[in-house]
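Module 6 notes. Inverse folding takes a fixed backbone as the condition and produces residue identities as the prediction. Think of it as a translation problem where the source language is geometry and the target language is the twenty amino acids. Below is one complete input and output pair. Work through it position by position during the lab.
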């Protein structure tokens, strides 16, 4: 197969981790007889420096014209003082919205080799951690009006959280369909005891649940969900939730699996073109030092093969190569443990490529 991949190396550790994922993709292309063409795209802080805006229209067009987008990470202290419209994160949000990527899939799975790195008690970890957070990605408070006004010398800020039925229904269906491919259990997370958006969310979800009688459905309030994720994560199979709650809960979910550096994600809309990125940030403190964990990005490339390119064998091969590198005892600093060997970002890439 012939695929064009838009590549956003981004800021901080972004370029280092993306370089390793591309080596892995090149090896896959060679091994399975595919051709991957890479289109470089500027987005985030580097785009602000180069073009004066975080996502120039021509860059969004390149992404829309590709078969999928691979992203490292964007942002950093250099751009912290910028006005809202000129922050690196704005580029990411504009990309998600511009590509119509409403469904964000973030797996929280404990690799058995890393169980000692989980901050949870061994007795909790032993029950297993393997769930997915399905996060609504282009609605809610992220995309409502934001404003700051000033009266009598006092400032007041407002952010609007809005959801319409069709926005809830389309992500709700992804939640049910995802559960159907797994252990048939769906938890919908909301704050229906306080928010109107959540009450509508819950009503739509209950209507959908009638159509999926084979899926064991339940509602959970977001504060309780935050608690249950650390109390007994084994109870979860698929969590579906709105944008802001999903942002917060997916960071929590990643931490209990040992390292946020391991977690990939996919963002999809109606077509097969998606955005694939690790869920961690640009880690400016270790940027340029070849210390970052490239596995979240490499596993994102595996998800790209699986969900956008219909290459399940290739995806399995990448995941197995990661598994073997971990079995060898290789660890980057974020997941280092006693008896293991500390390796650089490049050395981790070397090892994973060598297993392919
Ligand atoms: C994420 C990030 C982004 C978000 C930021 C960088 C805008 O935290 O992908 O989880 O809040 O969605
Ligand atoms: Mg986040």
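Target side of the pair, the amino acids:
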């Amino acid at each position: 197969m012939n695929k064009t991949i838009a590549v956003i190396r981004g800021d901080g550790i972004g370029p280092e981790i993306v370089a390793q994922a591309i080596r892995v993709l090149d090896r896959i292309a060679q091994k399975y007889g595919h051709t991957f063409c890479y289109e470089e795209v500027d987005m985030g802080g580097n785009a602000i420096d180069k073009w004066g805006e975080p996502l120039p229209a021509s860059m969004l067009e390149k992404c829309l014209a590709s078969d999928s987008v691979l992203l490292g990470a964007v942002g950093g202290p250099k751009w912290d003082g910028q006005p809202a419209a000129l922050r690196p994160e704005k580029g990411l949000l504009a990309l998600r919205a511009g590509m119509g990527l409403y469904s964000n899939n973030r797996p929280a799975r404990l690799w058995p080799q890393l169980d000692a790195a989980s901050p949870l008690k061994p007795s909790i970890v032993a029950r297993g951690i393997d769930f997915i957070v399905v996060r609504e990605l282009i609605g809610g408070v992220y995309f409502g009006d934001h404003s700051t006004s000033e009266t009598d010398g006092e400032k007041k800020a407002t952010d609007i959280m809005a959801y319409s039925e069709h926005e809830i229904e389309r992500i709700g269906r992804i939640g049910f369909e995802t559960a159907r491919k797994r252990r048939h259990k769906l938890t919908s997370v909301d704050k229906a005891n306080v928010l109107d958006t959540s009450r509508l969310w819950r009503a739509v979800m209950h209507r959908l649940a009638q159509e999926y009688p084979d899926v064991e459905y339940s509602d959970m309030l977001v504060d309780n969900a935050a608690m249950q994720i650390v109390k007994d994560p084994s109870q979860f199979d698929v969590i579906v939730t709105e944008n802001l709650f999903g942002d917060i809960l997916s960071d929590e979910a990643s931490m209990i699996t040992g390292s946020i550096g391991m977690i990939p994600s996919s963002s999809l809309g109606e077509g097969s073109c998606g955005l694939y990125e690790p869920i961690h940030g640009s880690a400016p403190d270790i940027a340029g030092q070849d210390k970052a964990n490239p596995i979240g990005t490499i596993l994102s490339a595996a998800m790209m093969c699986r969900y956008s390119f219909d290459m399940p064998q290739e995806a399995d091969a990448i995941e197995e190569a990661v598994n073997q590198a971990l079995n060898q005892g290789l660890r980057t600093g974020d997941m280092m443990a006693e008896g293991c060997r500390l390796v650089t970002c490049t050395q981790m890439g070397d090892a994973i490529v060598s297993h392919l």
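Reference fact for the lab report: The chain is about 40% helix and 20% strand.
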